[in-house]
Specification:
226 residues; alpha/beta; Metallo-beta-lactamase, Chain A; 6 helices; globular
């Protein structure tokens, strides 16, 4: 499977069927003067992600921010590569930042993958329930949606009449080692339902559209963990 344009200027550039089996989905948003990557795979696909951006006719040097939806290795692995090569800023919620900065093998789940994550400085720590990142005339919304991890976020933007939601691991899993919190997760999912997103870009199970399929996906997991 090759890269895929999901909506105008929004691409799937990495994941199990695009780069390597251990990678969670990697998404790219083209804001014209800047590119933003949402999650970065498990770490062994860095050069392939680089090439995939180029194959779209885009310049990886325009990659200004790597937004990490949470601190697990399959989502954060290549972030250091892009920071070192292009000076891209690493962005994550403050409640998951410590795992990156200490290279905690448990909290990053690197031990699950038989690998390590080097202690890595976070450039911007998101705080609170909702932060908005501005790119020209567009806003990228970062919502704190704890549950899977304490600092899990979901990201959305409105473009060309559609609301695109990046809800990476909103399905779980939940584990004591991750400091998971199912009660907090239920509240988070209800916040996401209120968004009435047209497209859901998930971390492991694909892309869901239109709006009713996004709602069905979230509600199915709410029922499963009821």
């Amino acid at each position: 499977m090759k890269t895929e344009e999901i909506a105008e200027g929004i691409y799937l550039i990495g994941g199990p069927n695009v780069t390597r089996p251990e990678d969670a989905a990697v998404y790219l948003v083209d804001f014209g003067d800047e590119l933003v990557m949402i999650d970065s795979g498990a770490g062994n696909s860095s050069s392939q992600l680089d090439r995939n951006i180029e194959m779209l006719g885009l310049k990886p040097s325009k990659l200004t921010q790597i937004i990490l939806t949470h601190c697990h290795i399959d989502h954060i692995g290549s972030a250091t590569y892009f920071r070192e090569k292009y000076k891209s800023e690493i962005v994550i919620h403050e409640l998951d930042a410590r795992a990156l900065e200490t290279g905690d093998s448990m909290k990053t789940a690197a031990n699950w993958y038989g690998t390590t994550f080097p202690p890595t400085r976070v450039d911007r720590k998101l705080k609170g329930a909702h932060e908005i990142l501005n790119f020209g005339q567009e806003d990228l919304h970062c919502l704190h949606t704890p549950g899977h991890t304490p600092g899990s976020i979901s990201v959305y933007l409105d473009r060309a009449g559609q609301r695109i939601l990046f809800g990476q691991d909103i399905h779980g899993p939940f584990n004591r080692a991750f400091d998971s919190d199912i009660a907090a997760w239920r509240k988070s999912m209800n916040v996401l339902l209120l968004l009435e997103a047209d497209i859901l870009c998930e971390g492991h199970f694909g892309i869901y559209q239109p709006k009713n399929k996004v709602r069905d996906y979230i509600e199915r997991y709410l029922e499963e963990y009821d």
